[in-house]
What we know:
Strand content of chain C: 25-35%
CATH topology of the largest domain in chain A: TIM Barrel
Mean pLDDT of chain A: 88
CATH architecture of the largest domain in chain A: Alpha-Beta Barrel
Distance between the termini of chain C: 18 Å
CATH class of the largest domain in chain C: Alpha Beta
Structural class of chain C: alpha+beta
Bound molecules: flavin-adenine dinucleotide, flavin mononucleotide, FE2/S2 (inorganic) cluster
Number of helices of chain A: 9
Shape of chain A: globular
Oligomer: heterotetramer
Number of strands of chain A: 14
Largest sheet of chain A: 8 strands, parallel
Order of helices and strands of chain C: EHEEEEEEEEEHEEHEHEEEHE
CATH topology of the largest domain in chain C: Rossmann fold
Low-confidence stretches of chain A: 271-296, 305-314
Low-confidence stretches of chain C: 1-10, 16-47
Number of domains of chain A: 2
Helix content of chain A: 25-40%
Amino acid sequence: MSIQITRAGKNPLQVDSPVMPAAGTMGFGDAYSGLVKFEKLGAFVTNPVTYTPWNPASGARVVPLDSGMLIHTGLPNPGISKVMSKYRDLWDNFAMPVIVHVVGTSPEHVRKCASRIDAEHAVDALELGLNDDIPWAEAEQMVRGAVGNTDKPVLVRVPFTDALALAETADHAGAGAVVVCAPPRGSARDPHSGRMVTGRIYGPMVKAMVLRLVEQLAGKLEAPIIGSGGIHSEQDARDYIDAGARAVQVDTLTWIQPFMLERIARDLGGLVLTRPAGALADEWFPGMGETAKKARDAAKNKDAGQNPASKKSG
Amino acid sequence: MSIQITRAGKNPLQVDSPVMPAAGTMGFGDAYSGLVKFEKLGAFVTNPVTYTPWNPASGARVVPLDSGMLIHTGLPNPGISKVMSKYRDLWDNFAMPVIVHVVGTSPEHVRKCASRIDAEHAVDALELGLNDDIPWAEAEQMVRGAVGNTDKPVLVRVPFTDALALAETADHAGAGAVVVCAPPRGSARDPHSGRMVTGRIYGPMVKAMVLRLVEQLAGKLEAPIIGSGGIHSEQDARDYIDAGARAVQVDTLTWIQPFMLERIARDLGGLVLTRPAGALADEWFPGMGETAKKARDAAKNKDAGQNPASKKSG
Amino acid sequence: MLLAALPDTEALIVPAEATDQHQTTERQRHGRPNVCTMGAYAFQGHRGAPMRETQANIERVTRLNAHIQRLHLSIEDSLNTIKPGQTVLARRFYGSQPEQWQPYLREHWWPVAVTAKPGHPSEMTVDRPTYPSYDPGQQYTLLGPVGKPFAYKRTIRQVLMIAHDTMPSPLLMSTEWLLSNKVNTTLVLSGKAVDYPVSELPKELEVIRSDDKLQWPNRVMTVGWADQVFVAVGQDDEMGRFKEVLELFKALRAEVPKQYIFGVSQLIQPCGVGACQACTISLQGGDYALACLDGPALDLTALHLP
Amino acid sequence: MLLAALPDTEALIVPAEATDQHQTTERQRHGRPNVCTMGAYAFQGHRGAPMRETQANIERVTRLNAHIQRLHLSIEDSLNTIKPGQTVLARRFYGSQPEQWQPYLREHWWPVAVTAKPGHPSEMTVDRPTYPSYDPGQQYTLLGPVGKPFAYKRTIRQVLMIAHDTMPSPLLMSTEWLLSNKVNTTLVLSGKAVDYPVSELPKELEVIRSDDKLQWPNRVMTVGWADQVFVAVGQDDEMGRFKEVLELFKALRAEVPKQYIFGVSQLIQPCGVGACQACTISLQGGDYALACLDGPALDLTALHLP
Lengths: 314, 314, 306, 306
Ligand SMILES: Cc1cc2nc3c(=O)[nH]c(=O)nc-3n(C[C@H](O)[C@H](O)[C@H](O)COP(=O)(O)OP(=O)(O)OC[C@H]3O[C@@H](n4cnc5c(N)ncnc54)[C@H](O)[C@@H]3O)c2cc1C
Ligand SMILES: Cc1cc2nc3c(=O)[nH]c(=O)nc-3n(C[C@H](O)[C@H](O)[C@H](O)COP(=O)(O)OP(=O)(O)OC[C@H]3O[C@@H](n4cnc5c(N)ncnc54)[C@H](O)[C@@H]3O)c2cc1C
Ligand SMILES: Cc1cc2nc3c(=O)[nH]c(=O)nc-3n(C[C@H](O)[C@H](O)[C@H](O)COP(=O)(O)O)c2cc1C
Ligand SMILES: Cc1cc2nc3c(=O)[nH]c(=O)nc-3n(C[C@H](O)[C@H](O)[C@H](O)COP(=O)(O)O)c2cc1C
Ligand code: FES
Ligand code: FES
């Protein structure tokens, strides 16, 4: 009834729908509460957090591009402790797993964040974001640090630059899943001020580039692949699954058409689960929703024999 | 009066305008003859050639994308010998230098192509295209092979994947200039047949990604950088120059708006040459056209003391 | 990072039904405190109606001058409780045609007027630049209301609105509301704003044309009289211009108290709901506000200006 | 890679002025032989007027059925010498507004009719799918003429046109020309083409509606009578469908000679001038043609079909 999106281990992550938001696109859980039905998502991935607080970038932060945009925020956040204490209760009430995205600042900070997440009942997994020009050795050290400091699955989101090599590095270092990939970076001129801004690039065209990376990686990793980049339709999401991804992350589409996230989650929830029985792709998986979630939680509690007072099984 | 776009050496390449077409966008010199004023271009870069003939790719070859396209041709060409014998006379009559793009198939074939070009009076330089997932060592071997087999400048066009490392590799191996970069590759579904096509991606958004690569490489290479990717306006081209490129290559814009190539060449011809004197960016360089070309050829013949019967000085 | 310096919200009023019982905010519905934007400063306590996605139809397009066109839209009734100062994020609706991703971001629309008409669809007018082109019959989806209504002192009698190198549209719905509530209102048009057609402005509004440097006759008097000031500026450097204006007021007045002068931020809002963090505005003391949740009107004395 | 199997071009005629002295081709102007596409096969010797970029204006848009709209354009006179079979690559002209890059590629327009009107702008009509939408007053730039006119045997009396799972538009301008030159012409509409409104077709044209499998009454007779056949097919698999049609003709006729049956290629043309190599069509013997230079009509017996 559920899809396992991280490799086998102590606490593999199970989801009802292989669709979740990409880190940085839906805030910490309260932003889209009136616009997106959260319970239809396979998982919730938070905005990036760092061990210490980070301030916003100064100057222009958004450059509209043709069929896309460039954004440069500097990933402002008040640090992992404040985030936890503020959102713990909200996350505890979510029907789906919560994955906290941790920015790969330094191996030490990543280890500390992992320990923090390990102790946090409201959080089901950690997603580690690797910086764009990170050397392989440092990436490996960071992933091992995260994996070594929590029993929860560690998803690793590799940057677009050098994605293939870093995906293999993360896989060898024990990543529970490899998210392919963070948005490509670029530079564009703010049309208002004429100043050059460097930041992340989003748009439907990104999908074509990242889909090829997933095709190239398919079958090469032990950890499941989560496809992430430029999904703007149900078919875009299915293309990632067809190419070998176990799940997908939807990024800026949610800003432009919030309801599409739910539509894609519903669509792929049905598609993936009914396909093995030879059903049509648009047929719906009838168990989706609370029922499957409860069954999953019950199974998890029984199997793992831990977290007896599971937050979500009540 | 002219801009040197390859590093100092026996036959540095001088151009009147730092603007040329990207390989693969203008054919071999006859395709746009009625639509683009060739004499306004800084140089002419041919479609890719291989040592042996290559057949076209089969199946769908063009996928329209949002504000862009994906194209997969397989770089069909009848091999370097046929191309030379067919276009030699046409190129000899061109006012600007001719750069033949050689596909980096194998070190041996690249060496042979370089020798062929070295002996060809109608050709002024070779541009070597490195394959998308080429290992560094093979790239170095190929560049050395090309440089070692011709006295003419060897420009090296690095792929988008791993562009930074391959640019430094090419630079160390003696590239006369580094073209940053070939279009990124991706996969998209042919809307007619539903089949997945893998190919090159073009569109204005590519510029933001490649511009950042040029920014990252600026000042790090001995060889001049030629910026190439997604130029769709005069400002796009200027952004590359501002970021540190010595010249630019315009790609698919020529297919969409043929006259824009000439406009950009005129604009940057004026910009780059009049700026040092503090003139306005849109002022025109008065010597542009035949006069400067003749002076350049004359200087080249005198200085180098070779090619006494220069094809273009008459 | 502290949520310090919270203004005395009790002393402020927001227009119309914003304090009504049924105007439950998103935040309230989650049973969580109002100050919940991650690390963000809450300027006022009320956001008005919860954000929804609704549809709108362009009924008429009129050209105001060479640079401005006015869209007359029919909107869903649920949006007609939008308050002066709040905005919508608009996107063309393509129906059964393939979705277009150019332009990509939603357009930020500032209503100039919203009218409920019993038995008819509610109406909204917005001013837009003449590019892109809009045609009657086109459908849009609107995300809104975005942001908080402007908040006024209870004792307010004189309001000064300033549009400096920008269309005055972000100020007009509030101006209309103030005038209808018998608050004397003055609009200063400066720089690119001077061409705005006065014929489209309410008769009771005092309009002053300033030069490019925000100089106008009797400036000291105008500034002295104002109980509150709302300023919209050009987008080349919003914070730098806010700073200029604040310094001008500091030079013209004995003191510039809190809750006196507000910058109306027109920063691009990719999401409008506090998710993307692209509309952050740094505050004094290291905290920050989000223009989409805490704005668009932000107390200039609380901002960390360059 | 040899330029072998060149057809006997002498036996073919192309409509109207294509052989006039002033119709110098691009290739001729460069003093180079006509067969100069890199590695490409030249089907006919003449291309008509040299390719130019010109402007056009949408004057009227009419809806032919749920799927097809007809654009009536005023064009520059230099384009009114375009020949039946030739096409244009069209792009919206944005004037002083920022250039739009969506859609990116130029649209491939197949003229249905072109008329010169002394004292008035020349007119062109084209059929387009109902998406995207076109409006009167919109300006376009046209690159054209693209490709070569259809070439007919000198002795031609009966032509068969087949539109199979595609709009018949690529065949209509030629049909008109043939009928006006007293050549009996039959148009077979099959699959998606059957809905094409007959009211828009010339009265003298014999129209046959076939089923999805290209079966129609008296098929053997129709095929036997035809001196030449031109076929346009759906774009899901153009070459596969050309092969099906060729095999059908081989089954229905004693022999299928050269220059008898032509596939009218509607492959996407990014450049239209022989530069991008995206419209390559493999020929028997390892050579290839370019749809934009050597087409759109290509002798099916010369193609390397899958
Ligand atoms: C895109 C889509 C495709 C579906 N395809 C199938 C299918 O192939 N086979 C099948 O048995 N069931 C299908 N359904 C219905 C789905 O199975 C039921 O909505 C679901 O079983 C109810 O459980 P829930 O927990 O999701 O309920 P809720 O979360 O309460 O879901 C109900 C919500 O879904 C909406 N909804 C329900 N059905 C549809 C629908 N068909 N289209 C759009 N919105 C709908 C309702 O308006 C309501 O908002 C589909 C629903 C959607 C949205
Ligand atoms: C975009 C542009 C900007 C220019 N800016 C300047 C400038 O700042 N200062 C200056 O002294 N000269 C300017 N010129 C004119 C230019 O210097 C002359 O065209 C040139 O010197 C003539 O030499 P040529 O060999 O290029 O001639 P040709 O190639 O014969 O050039 C003549 C062609 O250019 C076109 N042309 C000429 N002038 C213009 C123009 N202003 N705009 C558009 N098309 C034109 C003509 O119609 C003709 O097609 C500009 C030209 C262009 C196209
Ligand atoms: C030391 C350091 C490490 C970073 N690591 C990451 C990372 O692992 N993942 C990530 O997404 N951003 C990381 N960033 C942030 C990026 O520099 C950048 O701010 C981020 O990709 C968001 O892009 P933007 O600021 O342009 O919006 C890091 C920044 C610093 C200073
Ligand atoms: C062995 C081999 C080497 C290649 N080397 C290059 C190269 O150096 N540069 C290049 O642009 N394409 C090269 N290609 C061609 C690419 O695979 C691809 O065909 C090309 O990038 C054009 O893309 P397209 O065929 O998708 O249009 C090479 C192909 C092969 C088979
Ligand atoms: S627009 Fe304010 S956070 Fe996204
Ligand atoms: S369209 Fe034929 S070569 Fe470009």
